[in-house]
């Protein structure tokens, strides 16, 4: 099973406000990059890479966590846990898309749901065991949700990027 720990960057940009309202500086961005490479990297090693003491790194990481700028999570490759078919499902809804998004997010096979502007109201990332599982999920659970007007599935044939790793632009 392939799994790696990463720090997910939720929109931190140099000179911009983070989710918690604080401004991330170049050192904090460098710490985030270190954690994205290895979410279990010791604070001492991060400190050496960014020019801070272990204690200073610990304080900065805690501040970033408290602000909601990052979260530390294990990212699992779905194939490593037997989910061999992945797909993105575009969903058109009648009315407010938020209740449908919330219902989709409760399904175990759904990794994420986003409300979008464009041809679909929602995009759902799903992972299932096989094509039969995908068909059952779509016909029996997704398309039957109140408010779902239509779906369009995009089966993943390959992936080229590391999920969950967003690199802030240089300052």
Give an overview of the whole structure:
It is a single chain. Helix content is 32%, strand content 26%. The chain is of the alpha+beta class and 171 residues long. A hairpin with a 6-residue loop joins strand 4 and strand 5. Helix 1 packs across helix 2 (43-50) and helix 2 (43-50) packs across helix 3. The chain is elongated. Residues 1-21 have low confidence and may be disordered.
Overview in brief:
This protein is of the alpha+beta class and 171 residues long. Helix content is 32%, strand content 26%. It has helices at 26-37, 43-50, 54-67, 97-105, 131-142, and strands at residues 3-9, 70-76, 85-93, 110-115, 122-128, 148-155.
CA gyration radius, whole angstroms: 19 Å
Can you tell me the residue ranges where pLDDT is under 50 for at least 5 consecutive residues? 1-21
Q: List the secondary-structure elements in sequence, H or E.
A: EHHHEEHEEHE
Based on helices, strands and strand pairing, what is the structural class? alpha+beta
Oligomer: single chain
State the total count of DSSP E strands: 6
Q: Helical segment tally?
A: 5
Biggest β-sheet: strands ordered side by side in the sheet: 4-5-3-6
Tell me the overall shape.
elongated
The main sheet comes to: 4 strands, antiparallel
Spatial gap, N to C terminus? 36 Å
Whole-number mean pLDDT: 84
Helix content: 25-40%
Strand content: 25-35%
């Amino acid at each position: 099973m392939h799994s790696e720990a990463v720090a997910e960057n939720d929109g931190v940009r140099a000179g911009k406000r983070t989710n918690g309202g604080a401004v991330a500086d170049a050192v904090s961005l460098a710490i985030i990059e270190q954690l994205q490479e290895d979410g279990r990297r010791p604070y001492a090693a991060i400190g050496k890479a960014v020019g801070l003491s272990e204690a200073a790194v610990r304080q900065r990481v805690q501040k970033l966590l408290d602000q909601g700028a990052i979260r530390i999570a294990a990212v699992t490759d779905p194939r490593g846990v037997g989910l061999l078919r992945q797909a993105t499902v575009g969903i058109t809804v009648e009315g407010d898309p938020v209740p449908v998004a919330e219902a989709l997010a409760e399904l175990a096979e759904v990794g994420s749901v986003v409300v979008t502007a464009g041809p679909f109201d929602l995009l759902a990332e799903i992972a299932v065991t096989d094509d039969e599982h995908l068909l059952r999920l779509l016909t029996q659970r997704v398309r039957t949700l109140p408010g779902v007007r239509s779906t369009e599935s995009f089966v993943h044939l390959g992936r080229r990027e590391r999920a969950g790793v967003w690199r802030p632009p240089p300052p």
